[in-house]
Design a protein that fits this description.
The protein is an alpha+beta fold. The chain is built from 1 helix and 3 strands; from the N terminus they run H-E-E-E. The N and C termini lie far apart (about 95 Å).
């Protein structure tokens, strides 16, 4: 048999480089998409936590006439907040910032709850705040 009739099997170096390059691009796109999904998920959790905190504070005020000095005053009391502790930021484990306006003796007239967000394109300034007048 002559050498011309023999068929070699296998991949060329260019074919292997093309496959590895395509796999690297797909892997990078997958990692970026996963990272963004996790970041957005944590931001959505923060928004939900703050909304639930706001609802508990409004219920407390409707019963007592003022907002509490500290959110911890709602924990385990009369069904305002059923969890054993204040909700915590999903990535840092820190509590959200609750700031009442005025004092309970004069009647807190409002409050602000603030969380630091990760997705600054959706939340300009990197924070999300709920203010109740």
């Amino acid at each position: 048999m002559s050498k011309r009739l023999q068929k070699k099997s296998g991949f060329t170096m260019i074919e292997l480089l093309a496959v590895v390059t395509i796999m690297a691009i797909l892997f990078t796109i997958g990692i970026v998409a996963y990272t963004n999904a996790v970041r957005n998920s944590r931001d959505n959790r923060r928004v939900t936590d703050i909304s639930n905190m706001r609802q508990a504070l409004v219920l407390f005020r409707s019963d007592t006439g003022c907002y509490p000095d500290d959110f911890a005053d709602l924990l385990g009391s009369d069904g305002y907040w059923s969890e054993p502790q204040q909700p915590l930021d999903p990535s840092t484990g820190m509590s959200y910032t609750y700031t009442p306006s005025g004092t309970c003796a004069t009647g807190h007239s409002g409050f602000t709850i603030t969380a630091n967000m990760e997705n600054t394109s959706t939340y300009p300034g990197g924070t999300y705040s709920v203010t109740n007048p």
